Amino acid sequence: MGRLQGKTAVITGAAEGIGHAIAGAMAREGAHVFVADIADAKGEAVVAALRQAGLAATYVHCDVTSDADISALIAAAMAATGRLDVLVNNAAIAIGGMPVTEMTDEQWHRLIAVNLTSVFRGCKHALPHMIARRAGSIINMASAQGHVGLDGWTAYAGAKGAVMAMTRQMAVEFGRHGVRVNSISPGTINTPMNDKLVAELGGKLMQAWVTMHPIGRIGEPAEVAEAAVYLASDAAGFTTGIDLRVDGGLTAAPRYVPDLL
Ligand SMILES: NC(=O)c1ccc[n+]([C@@H]2O[C@H](COP(=O)([O-])OP(=O)(O)OC[C@H]3O[C@@H](n4cnc5c(N)ncnc54)[C@H](O)[C@@H]3O)[C@@H](O)[C@H]2O)c1
């Protein structure tokens, strides 16, 4: 039996990258996964591939900056399966690579809307269903960037730090209702988000990332997905309020390498 057999899991930003890997891993563990994204064609393709493999998956268009979309996403999962066991607030964007003095208000507000307000909204709409069943696991995607500094990423780090603080607060507030709330802080992971950054910021960036990780490489989405499956599963029944670092040692031994950047 799969580790998530019979559970319903909603994952935002699941059309590609880490969210895609989490959706696949959770479906293979027996969950009915709700793949939510704004990239409809990619999201539909993810669901088609999972169904082709005999797994339970549904695509829902959801822009996490829209309260109505998130409310409808949670409602769709409840209507189809009658339960909500797992919410992974994963969707985010990377606006950065510039000093905070060069960031516009518009960029700031966009980043906060996608990376932080979305977490508030996801939790707000999911919690009542979890509390009603006295069971649930919320997983918020944070980042190593919320732990250590790197030139050019003040706003992104601020949002991720806030995600971790909110995770702790909600773990305390909703533990008594049977709901666990944890975050994951990945190091640099091989995803389209980072492909875009390397394309924009130059080839030396990848070399710098590899050097920063004591384990000597960047991570794979499947390695983050494994952590998410654990936190979603009953095996993590006594684990709440933590930030699980899946970062190849990045935050254990911060290495600042300005000569490569
Ligand atoms: N890749 C990394 O190195 C890394 C490191 C630390 C943390 N993270 C975090 O992991 C999560 C996933 O990152 P990734 O690298 O897989 O990103 P990605 O860009 O590869 O994928 C993100 C997905 O989110 C979707 N998305 C973007 N805006 C959205 C919106 N408004 N509504 C709904 N969906 C939206 C995109 O369409 C895409 O499918 C993010 O929270 C990111 O901050 C990533």
UniProtKB/TrEMBL annotation:
Extract the PANTHER family matched here: 3-OXOACYL-(ACYL-CARRIER-PROTEIN) REDUCTASE (AFU_ORTHOLOGUE AFUA_6G11210) (PTHR43180), SHORT-CHAIN DEHYDROGENASE_REDUCTASE FAMILY PROTEIN (PTHR43180:SF66)
The protein in question is named NAD(P)-dependent dehydrogenase (Short-subunit alcohol dehydrogenase family)
Q: Does the keyword Cytoplasm apply?
A: no
**Pfam families associated with the record:** adh_short_C2
InterPro entries the UniProt entry points to: NAD(P)-bd_dom_sf, Sc_DH/Rdtase_CS, SDR_fam
Could you say which protein family the record assigns here? Answer: Belongs to the short-chain dehydrogenases/reductases (SDR) family.
The cross-references to SUPFAM superfamilies, in alphabetical order and at most eight, read: NAD(P)-binding Rossmann-fold domains
Recorded hits in PROSITE patterns, A to Z, give: ADH_SHORT
In its UniProt entry, the species of origin is given as Labrys wisconsinensis
Q: Which NCBIfam families match?
A: PRK07231.1 (NF005559)
Keywords in alphabetical order, please: Oxidoreductase
